[in-house]
Design brief:
- The protein is mainly α.
- Helix content is about 75%, strand content about 0%.
- The longest helix has about 40 residues.
Length: about 50
């Protein structure tokens, strides 16, 4: 039994994956930019918890 909706479902899932990846990338860039701005305004820039 061939499901005619299988191809559409896979295309929709790949589209959602692309949207998720782009959204996550934008969020990461946003967070990194904010951290850089806050760190740069702090003077040293190494006061983040990731530096420990």
């Amino acid at each position: 039994m061939t499901d005619p909706y299988s191809k559409g479902a896979t295309e929709a899932s790949t589209r959602w994956v692309k949207v998720l990846v782009i959204t996550v990338a934008l969020l990461v860039l946003l967070v990194v930019g904010i951290m850089l701005l806050l760190g740069g305004g702090d003077g040293g820039g190494g006061h983040g918890p990731s530096r420990h």
